[in-house]
Design brief:
elongated, SH3 type barrels, 5 strands, 110 residues, five-stranded antiparallel beta sheet, alpha+beta
Amino acid sequence: MQIFVRALFDYDPATDDLISCREAGLAFSTGDILHILAKDDHHWWQARHWTTDNLSRTLQLAGLIPSPELLEWKTSCSTIERAKRKHTPKIGSKYRVVATKSQEKCYTIL
């Protein structure tokens, strides 16, 4: 079974601190159609841009894209960090930061 998704956000591996090899990442823009080749890793999927031109399709290089699970984790962490900066405690006070699950979607399955 082949899996195709439409990106709902822009991604540039050159600016991603979590990818271990930025050269292996696949940059894409909102609206791009990606062909998912492998989902073996829970954090990084292997994909390539999809095109209707057979010649271009064979020349497309595969790369790593963040999985929805990884993106949800990144969103949760950034939410917690923003909350910590916003609610700097006074000396001696107690506080707790509660993160909620992100409702944003990353990809639309086609």
